[in-house]
Amino acid sequence: MKRILSLYIIREIASLFLLGIAVFTLILLMGRLIKLTDLVISRGVPMADISRMILYLMPSFLVFTIPMAFLLAVLLAFGRLSADNEITVMKSGGLSLVQIMPPVVLCGMVAVLLTLAASTVGVPWGNSAFKRISFEMLKQNVAVTIREKVFWDEIPGIILYTDQYDEQNHTLKGVIIHDGRDQARPMTIFAATGNVGCTPNQQDICLVLNNGSIHAAGKGDGYRLVHFGEYAMTVAGPGKGGGIGRNETDMGIGELRQQIADPATPQATRLKMAAELQSRFAFPFASLVFAVVAVPLGIQNRRSGKSAGFSLSIAILLAYYVLLSLLRTLAERGTVPAELALWLPNVIFLAAGWYFLKMASLERSILSAAQDALLALIGKRSAVR
Q1: pTM for the full model?
Q2: SS3 of residue 199 by DSSP
Q3: What is the DSSP string of 43-92?
Q4: Residue 175: exposed, middle, or buried by beta-carbon count in 10 A (0-12, 13-18, 19+)?
Q5: How many CB atoms lie within 10 A of CB 186?
Q6: Tens-place pLDDT, residues 150-199
Q7: Which of 31, 139, 243, 287 would bridge 111 by S-S if both were Cys, CB 3.0 to 4.6 A apart?
């Protein structure tokens, strides 16, 4: 009997879970599709390359969409079971909510494993491959995307303006470049002429500038002015700035640990890497936490329908991500240890879910119980005063 019931609950969650992954992934992908479509129309990038780019983006999407889809699936599944009085039938057969939980937890563990695979293996692989193919496209099309009297910002951190541009010879006249890749020491370059090209090894994109000057911030409040006859500037390439180089999101677990343990790693970078390392493991377990939170909320959401279930899932996700983002920021600043900051949202929501489950088992309204607890807390504070 329990085996049949468990398979029934798993089947109910699984269908909604798969649908949720597809919908949420498509929603996240829509923001990228506009730019990817522009690559096809304006630059003639083959659809095969666009498909590869979408494939490389998938792991970073799945890290978010799997927990989102699982939360929504459990809310809708138990909302329907409650609305059709199937939960009441289960309870009348001697089953408690705790006894109904094992198939939900099993589904949650599957979601955790999928998210862990995407987070620890898929994300670094996908991010590195996406940057690599993006750089190859940029290197092939950089000369044809520059327009005279238009600010060019295809490479993050670099803004280029030119009065005249010869598309055939790739030469520039009246060049102004703002290089903000080093935020501590940004610089502005003026040049009479220039030329767009690649380094001899064909790995980097460079600008060869002639007869100009470099204006940069010096030490403290100092100011540096350098005049040059010829200046070769590498604007992008593997390991260079401008968003082309690797950062903590491109590194695997072993590399992150190695960089964190390396004394030569700057403190600010070490804190970011520590936060990234903890998030690779803490965030996937959100699915298991959501399993405990969603079951009692889904049962008590019996009359509101699917729209209310969707709204409730968005509210829970928003609260979770806001708390996670806040604590991650504190971890990256060194205010809170990364091990505590990144796992604390899971602990808080797990405690809330266990409380909700207890109230639902006692046939008490979660909202009423929360209001009673709040009033009791206010009454205690008033008595102390």
Answers
A1: 0.76
A2: coil
A3: H---HHHHHHHHHHHHHHHHHHHHHHHHHHHHHHHHHHHHHTTHHHHHHH
A4: buried
A5: 14
A6: 888 777 778 889 998 887 777 889 999 888 877 777 889 999 998 887 65
A7: 287
